[in-house]
Specification:
Blueprint lengths: L4 H8 L3 H11 L5 H8 L3 H13 L3 E3 L5 E3 L1 H22 L4 H12 E2 L2 E2 L6 H15 L5 E3 H12 L7 H10 L4 E3 L2 E3 L4 H9 L1
Helix pairs in contact: 2-3, 2-4, 3-4, 5-6, 6-7, 7-10, 8-9
Length: about 200
């Protein structure tokens, strides 16, 4: 997904009126009038806050219109966060050779998209080499616009990195050579990359 669900929740609850309205519902206020009273909000502020909370799915309205907290949504987010932590922890564990490479790539690259760049430098280099190898043919010249388009596709699902940063990393690591607006992947990149994971 384009924006991490945890970030969406943080943004949702960054506004005090929404937090107060949500707290009122969590404490048992079942109607907009009860929420307004319990949260100390005007009817308009309450309506706006509840609309936003319902849009994001954290507050629901039952068949009778009674408001409630969507606890299932929070459980889903907690499970997803636990899985991400588990995946990240697994990527940080030492492994060897192709097992290590596969584990790192599965953690940070999904469905041909970059989820995020690893913090650890050796893993970051491995992921960047993979992107270069999957995206650019050795010795072929690419104009900057083509490079940007290809790298944008890798960044679609990541809020962590953009195509410009990715391009700069690839050039800095010599996975791409740049000259007068033309980019080329050197033929010897695969041999250089093998040394990175040894």
């Amino acid at each position: 997904m384009a924006t991490d669900a945890t970030e969406q929740l943080v943004r949702l609850f960054a506004e005090e009126r929404r937090v107060r309205a949500f707290a009122a519902v969590a404490l048992g206020a079942g109607s907009a009038e009860q929420v307004a009273r319990a949260a100390g909000l005007s009817p308009k502020e309450t309506a706006v806050a509840l609309r936003r909370l319902r849009e994001q799915g954290v507050v629901t309205a039952g068949d009778g219109g009674e408001l409630g907290v969507a606890y299932g949504l929070f459980k889903e987010h907690a499970r997803a966060a636990a899985q991400r932590a588990k995946d990240s922890e697994a990527a940080e564990r030492p492994a060897s050779g192709s097992d290590r490479t596969g584990l790192v790539l599965r953690t940070f690259v999904r469905d041909g998209r970059l989820v995020r760049l690893p913090a650890q430098w050796t893993r970051k280099k491995l992921v960047l080499r993979h992107i270069a190898e999957q995206t650019f043919e050795p010795g072929v010249e690419y104009p900057e616009r083509a490079v940007n388009d290809k790298l944008r596709a890798w960044c679609q699902d990541s809020d962590d990195i953009d195509h410009v940063t990715l391009r700069r990393h690839l050039v800095d690591l010599h996975h791409l050579h740049r000259s007068e607006g033309i980019y080329r992947r050197p033929v010897d990149t695969a041999q250089a990359g093998a040394a990175d994971i040894a």
